[in-house]
Amino acid sequence: MSATQLKEIHYTICPVGNATYIAVKRNMVHEGMQRFGITPVLLQTLDQAYWSAHFDHHDELLFREGGNIPPLWTKAKGADTLLIGLCILRQKQCVITRADAPFNSVEELRGRRIAIPTHPNSIIDFHKATAEHGFKIALQARGVSVDEVESKILLGERTFVTNSWNHGPWSATADDNTIDLDSVGEIHALNTGEVDAAYIKMSLLQAMMETGKYKVLLELSADPSLLMPINNEFPNTLTVSKKLAGEYPEVVVAYLKQLLLAAEWAKTHRDEAAAILAEQNYGVVSHFFGSYYSDFNENLTINLSTESVTALEGQKRFLYDYGYLEKNFSMKSWIDDTFLKAAWKEIEAERQQ
């Protein structure tokens, strides 16, 4: 079927560092679709009935790049999607406590309370799963069983289905880099003494550490004893509707090509890329630089490497074991690398002209 019959595609992006956000902000996705006469449309600008597709992928015209928990959950429920790319962008992930806490290590969390935020009204509680997996990795790395700590469930009301895709509950701006940290459930619980430790990452982590009121018990992402600090954004996932991919493969290739070119641009435009991704991460540039590693701009390229697939397999195993997935499924049957290979082939051909 010719791509000229398609008038628009839809895209959605999680508020985590990725090439899609750069490609959209630099108008690259729109430029890439021009030759087909196709308009890329942000999912959250459509009617509200579409918004939940960010989590359940019910939109047959949808590309999604972002956290891996929703697409894994969706695939386990039988959604007709394809996994066409992954990306491991290292971010600082820490187990933290108050600066005045009378302990300084994860080992000393035995018998203490850890924060597990939960949002029962959400389509898939990725926030809870992320905290549980983060703590599991941290505790096991220090020889502590999850049964030796008390999981303190913190109920939240957010559904995460919103059109405010670039404004988080703890957003900072270039004019005002202050964040109301106490409005975040697990941080409030930490401040009041309801819990003894929380798992925090990304720009929110840096904003907390700048206050001097907290200390790190373990930085998962920097610990050499850990094989992979897997979380919702490690790795990022790029999925597409199987129907869209089957009927318009050239459109999928063109879309992927723009993400690859955006990642290539970031390699030589580090500061500009940081400014774009800081906005995506609900923070300011200083927060971004403090929460990601210095080579972030070298690691935005979409791939399907063994390391990335292994990390995602580890996340799938955790989600299945903890009851988040209805059933297990074959990762191999979900992955389709033909689009990524074709996109790179086009880029290489253009470079040789």
Descriptive account of the structure:
The protein is α/β, with parallel strands linked by helices and 353 residues long. It has two domains: 206 residues, Periplasmic binding protein-like II (D-Maltodextrin-Binding Protein, domain 2), CATH 3.40.190; 130 residues, Periplasmic binding protein-like II (D-Maltodextrin-Binding Protein, domain 2). Strand 6, helix 5 and strand 7 form a beta-alpha-beta unit. Helix 2 runs antiparallel to helix 9. The protein is globular.
Strands, helices and their partners?
Elements: E1 8-13, H1 19-25, H2 28-34, E2 39-42, H3 53-56, E3 62-66, H4 69-76, E4 81-87, E5 93-98, E6 113-118, H5 126-141, E7 150-155, H6 185-192, E8 198-201, H7 202-209, E9 214-219, E10 236-241, H8 242-247, H9 249-267, H10 270-280, H11 285-291, H12 306-321, H13 331-334, H14 338-351
Parallel strand pairs: 1-2, 1-3, 6-7
Antiparallel strand pairs: 3-10, 4-10, 5-8, 5-9
Give the termini distance in whole angstroms.
Answer: 29 Å
Tally of individual helices: 14
CATH architectural designation of the largest domain: 3-Layer(aba) Sandwich
User: Which secondary-structure class do the elements indicate?
Assistant: alpha/beta
Order of helices and strands: EHHEHEHEEEHEHEHEEHHHHHHH
Tag the structure with descriptive keywords.
14 helices, D-Maltodextrin-Binding Protein, domain 2, single chain, 2 domains, 3-stranded antiparallel β-sheet, 5-stranded mixed β-sheet, globular, alpha/beta, 353 residues
